[in-house]
Design brief:
Layout: H1 2-39, E1 42-48, H2 51-59, E2 64-72, H3 81-86, E3 92-99, H4 106-114, E4 124-125, E5 128-129, E6 135-139, H5 142-158, E7 168-171, E8 176-177, H6 185-188, H7 190-200, H8 202-209, H9 231-237, H10 240-248, E9 266-270, E10 276-279, E11 283-284, E12 292-293, E13 302-307, E14 314-319, E15 325-330, E16 340-343, E17 348-352, H11 356-359, H12 365-374
Parallel strand pairs: 6-7
Antiparallel strand pairs: 1-3, 1-6, 2-3, 2-8, 4-5, 9-10, 9-17, 11-12, 12-16, 13-14, 14-15, 15-16
Helix pairs in contact: 4-5
Length: 375
């Protein structure tokens, strides 16, 4: 019996060693993959007032991997939002941008930064006042410093602004990540974010300051890209039902429309203007017979109006650039937002993920690459 027991022990020990070696090999492969991924990324740090807005603006850029909201430039260690917003720590609300320099350059990020701030105002940004909302470029090395100073000089001499460019260019200091509820705030709280952003005056200022100019090369918004054709074109382009829904605030039949039960991956755009509206990642089965989403893909492309028809008060949802009637918003959706965007299929065009590149929506491929990696 003893030899048999000894053999069993040796076999068990051998299996443990093999398993341990396999685990080590897998960990080494994971570490190598992570190292390669990090080597392909660069960092940029900007302050442009409320970091909810700057995070939202930069996350739309093709080539930006991640945007983190945080604080830097002050004296206090590990400051809280309450301390920074009170203005006593010397920190600025800022964002750390992780990006792929093969897809978007630092110069392009600088261009996008200038297009989304008031660079002449050192005392804050728009409705937010105080040094904690000052605009700034925090350079990570001498090359970033050189490029930032050069871009600032170009903007200064362009005559775009009547006042001098007051945005500071300073070396990066310790960056403190903001509290979790601030990260991706515009996605988690779309209604509050849109209300804040509209009332801040930011977009109104930017529209006036950059009127008549194209968007920067790296992306940075949809205002100059999507528009509504005239009515004659719409009547030719749209089916009778699509025209009735989008132009006459109509409603299509439940369960007898194109997308109520669509389970494919992709995005939904306005049938009139083509502006991105919703993602399949936020679509859920509401049981109503219409496509339902927990949140918009691009909150800036969604407008909400009070609707008093049908002897009740509802929230109508329209597209910003196409001015299409889309549907209604209800507060009975699932987590994480608790919202239900109930949308007519007739107001939408679905772009499958495999067609995003060919249809001109390549910047949204990263949404589904993330999903694939997670699976």
């Amino acid at each position: 019996m003893k030899p048999i027991i000894l053999i069993a022990i040796m076999l068990t020990f051998g299996l443990i060693l093999v398993g341990f070696q396999k685990s080590n090999d897998q960990q080494e492969k994971m570490d190598t993959t992570m190292d390669k991924k990090q080597k392909n990324q660069s960092e940029a740090t900007f302050a442009g007032g409320c970091f909810w807005c700057t995070e939202s603006d930069f996350e739309k850029i093709d080539g930006v991997v991640e945007v983190i909201s945080g604080y830097l430039g002050g004296q206090t260690q590990n400051p809280s939002y309450e301390e920074v917003s009170a203005g006593g720590t010397g920190h600025a609300e800022a964002i750390r941008v992780l990006y792929d320099p093969q897809k978007v350059t630092y110069n392009e990020l600088l261009d996008i930064f200038w297009r989304h701030v008031d660079p002449t105002d050192p005392g804050g940004q728009f409705v937010d006042r105080g040094s904690q909302y000052r605009p700034a470029i925090f350079y990570h090395d001498e090359e970033q410093k050189r490029l930032a100073e050069e871009s600032k000089r170009k903007l200064e001499t362009s005559g775009r602004f009547n006042e001098s460019i007051a945005t500071e260019i300073v070396p990066v200091s310790e960056f403190y990540r903001a509290e979790d509820y601030h990260q991706d705030y515009y996605k988690k709280n779309p209604l509050r974010y849109k209300y804040y952003r509209y009332n801040s005056g930011r977009d109104q200022f930017l529209k006036k300051a950059w009127a008549g100019t194209a968007q920067p090369a790296g992306g940075g918004g949809t205002q100059a890209t999507y528009s509504k054709p005239d009515d004659k074109v719409l009547k030719t382009k749209l089916t009778p039902l699509q025209y009735k829904v989008t132009q006459k605030e109509g409603t299509e039949p439940p369960f007898r429309n194109d997308y109520w039960d669509n389970k494919k991956e992709g995005i939904y755009v306005d049938i009139v203007s083509g502006e991105p509206l919703f993602s399949s990642q936020d679509k859920f089965a509401s049981g109503t017979g219409w496509p339902s989403f927990t949140r918009p893909l691009e909150p800036e492309n969604i407008l909400e109006n009070e609707d008093r028809s049908l002897f009740t008060v509802r929230t109508e949802v329209r597209s910003k650039h196409g001015d299409s009637h889309l549907g209604h918003l209800f507060p009975d959706g699932p987590e994480p937002t608790g919202l239900r965007y109930c949308i007519n299929s007739a107001s939408l065009k679905f772009i499958p993920k495999e067609d995003l590149q060919g249809e001109g929506y390549s910047e949204y491929l990263r949404l589904f690459e993330t999903t694939k990696a997670a699976n």
